[in-house]
Amino acid sequence: MNETEYVVFWISHGGSSHHQKHLELTVALAHAESLRKQGFRFVTMCAENADQVGKMGVDSVEDGKTPDGIDYTWVKRREV
Q1: Distance between CA 7 and CA 47 in Å, rounded?
Q2: CA-to-CA distance for 5 and 16, rounded, in angstroms?
Q3: Contact 23, 34 (CB under 8 A)
Q4: Which DSSP helix (H) or strand (E) runs through 27?
Q5: How far is CA 65 from CA 45, 48, 56, 72, in A?
Q6: What's the pTM?
Q7: φ and ψ of 63, to 5 deg
């Protein structure tokens, strides 16, 4: 069962900060869109995925491997 919560944050016209939790992504997105249409500022949304395992991203690479032993092959390529 996915227990991810989505939180919408915004600043009111008087400068106070507010937030509201939602259990469904579509509802959270609609709420954020509605706030923006009403002229509220700094409207943002975040979520913490309850099903996520481990840390996000790679925090270290040693000898071409991530901490869990997987080969790290990502290379940034730039067009010159």
Answers
A1: 6
A2: 23
A3: no
A4: helix 25-37
A5: 33, 27, 16, 5
A6: 0.61
A7: 55, 35
Distance CA 67, CA 24 (A): 34
User: Can you say whether residue 63 is alpha, beta or left, with left for phi > 0 and alpha for psi between -120 and 50 degrees?
Assistant: left
Residue 20: count other Cβ atoms within 10 Å of its Cβ.
Answer: 15
pLDDT in tens, 5-54: 999 999 998 999 999 999 999 999 999 999 999 999 999 999 987 677 66
Q: Report how far residue 42's alpha carbon sits from residue 80's, in angstroms, rounded to the nearest whole number.
A: 37
**Residue 61 and residue 44: Cα distance in Å, rounded?**
32
User: What is the number of alpha carbons within 13 Å of residue 22 lying toward its C-beta?
Assistant: 17
